[in-house]
Structures are given as structure tokens and as C-alpha cells.
Amino acid sequence: MSGEIKANFKPLGGFALMDTEIPEALVEQLNNYIDYDVIKEDVSMSDRLVGQLNRTENSKQLQMDMTIGTGKIFKTFLDGLGTAYVQNQMGDAGGRADTVDLWSNDAYEGDWQPLHMHGSQTPAGLSGFAYLQVPDSIAAGPPGYQVDLNNASGQVDGYTQLVWGNTNVQDLLQLKPQGQAYIKPEVGKMLLFPCWLYHQVGPFFGEGMRRSIAFNLNIHNSPEYLARFKVNVIGV
User: Fold this and answer.
1) What's the rounded Cα separation, in Å, for the pair 193 and 199?
2) CB-based contacts of 10-16 (< 8 A; 24+ apart in sequence)
3) Do the beta carbons of residue 104 and residue 195 sit within 8 Å?
4) pTM recorded for the entire structure
5) pLDDT per position as a tens digit, 116-166
6) Which of 12, 76, 180, 185 counts the highest number of beta carbons within 10 A?
């Protein structure tokens, strides 16, 4: 994998959302890996996840092996972006991120994900997802910041909603900070954020598969950074 990866940091409610694009070649490689290797292994993650992906026999959440092949390549990709997040947003020049969970989500008509957050094995952690396949019914929708839910529009069917507060449109008019955002799934789009950020995915309706991959990263801060908080760490 070669080429420059551009990552944008978008400020949201006191934290940053890393927004980047996965190279087209890597998207294709990941799709092939899931179709021919991950599906074959069929190691379900449903016992650890809240996703209600059960409407068809092909609705699945499967573990992806990060020790060999495409999974290992993508882990290296994620570790680099996660480390950039830690160093840029936490100001920890010696900090690093380590991907510890990676899984695929194959959703079909009626599948959905309840409001939830992820976790980490370290005090601070990162989570995120990327879109690998998007049905036509979702691709035809408006940008996430232009949705109109009146008249049963269905404009956010299959969209991801990020939630970090409980403000509404009226609150925004009163100068209260934004507390949520809709993200339109687009092939190759990838987001990375603190693991405590709540998010959910509504069901979509129509033909096709909505495929994403999700991941969790531990954050290993440097002793120098932790010393600012009077934290003593042995063996870092």
C-alpha cells in the first residue's frame, strides 16, 4: 500500500473526529478478504456486539484476523492513523495506538445497530469504522448535514448517527452546542474517534448490502505524558 493518506480532524463537542479516505485499492482488497477469507472462517462477533444484524442468513458480524495477510496490513494502517491521532490531539509525541479488535458488519434490509459505545483495555482508547459497500438506496441520500426528517422522509435510513449530547434544532438556534451528527455512508470513508462516543445505525430498506468494518484501539501514552497527571507507569 502506497500513497499519501490525508486525515482531517473535525472538532465536535470538545473532541476531534478524524475523517479520512481508504485508498480504493485497499477497499477492494478488504472486500475480497471478507468475501473469500473472513466469511469462510465465519467467526461470529455477535456475542460481544449489540448489532441487530439478523434479518437474513447473510447478515453477519465477523472477526477479522490481524496477524496475517490483509488483516495485518490494515492493522498497520490503523495503528499509524491512531498514533497520529494520539500525537496530534493529545499532544503526546511519544504516544502510540494499537489496534486490538477488528470486525466486519454485513447488513441487509431491516438490520440495525442500537445506540452504543465501544471500550478499550487502556484508560483511553479509540474506535471507528469504515464503509466498504453501500446500497443504492443509501448512496442516493443527502449529505448527513442536510437531512430533513419531516414527512417520514427516510433520509437517514442506513446512516450512522454520532451522539455526544442531547441538543436539538431549537437548542442550536439558542446558541447551545451541537450534540449529534448524521454521517452518510460512502465507500472508502473512515472515521476515528474516542471510544466513549455513542453511535447508532438505523435500518435501511431495499436491495443490496451495507458493509462496514469496525475497530478498537488501545492508547499507550508515554511516561512523559502521564507524568503531567502524576501517573506512574511501570513497564511502558
Assistant:
1) 11
2) 12/162, 12/164, 12/178, 12/181, 13/164, 13/165, 13/177, 13/178, 13/179, 15/89, 15/164, 15/193, 15/194, 15/197, 16/85, 16/88, 16/89, 16/193
3) no
4) 0.93
5) 999 999 999 999 999 999 999 999 999 998 899 899 999 999 999 999 988
6) 185
What values do phi and psi take at 191, rounded to 5?
A: -125, 145
- Among positive and negative, which fits the CA dihedral 182, 187, 193, 196? positive
Q: Is 24 exposed, middle or buried (0-12, 13-18, 19+ CB in 10 A)?
A: exposed
Give the span between the Cα atoms of 130 and 20, in whole angstroms: 9
Q: Is 148 exposed, middle or buried (0-12, 13-18, 19+ CB in 10 A)?
A: exposed
Give the Cα-Cα-Cα angle 181, 183, 189 (nearest 5 degrees). 140
DSSP category for residue 142: P
The amino acid occupying position 20 is T
The end-to-end CA distance of the chain, in Å, is 30
